[in-house]
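In the design runs reported in the main text, the only information available to the sequence generator was the tokenized backbone. The following block is the verbatim input for one such run; it is reproduced so that readers can re-run the procedure and compare outputs position by position.
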């Protein structure tokens, strides 16, 4: 449940900052849900937007700072 709440906040902030359009965010959510259903894996929306080239790490970091979170995408990419 906490992830859902974080994703909603992440999306609202990213849209308000002009980093993504509502349509781009909804598309990323669709991809996230389909990955969950078809592949049994959960990717963060920020990761999806990064992989699509819609947002960069600096923008994601900025949104996460506003939310009060660290930089999990960067940490994830360093360990991958």
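Verbatim output:
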């Amino acid at each position: 449940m906490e992830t859902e709440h974080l994703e909603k906040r992440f999306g609202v902030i990213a849209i308000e900052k002009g980093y993504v359009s509502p349509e781009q965010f909804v598309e990323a959510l669709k991809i996230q849900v389909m990955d969950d259903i078809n592949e049994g894996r959960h990717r963060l929306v920020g990761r999806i937007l990064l992989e699509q080239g819609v947002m960069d790490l600096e923008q994601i970091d900025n949104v996460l700072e506003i939310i009060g979170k660290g930089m999990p995408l960067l940490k994830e990419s360093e360990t991958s």
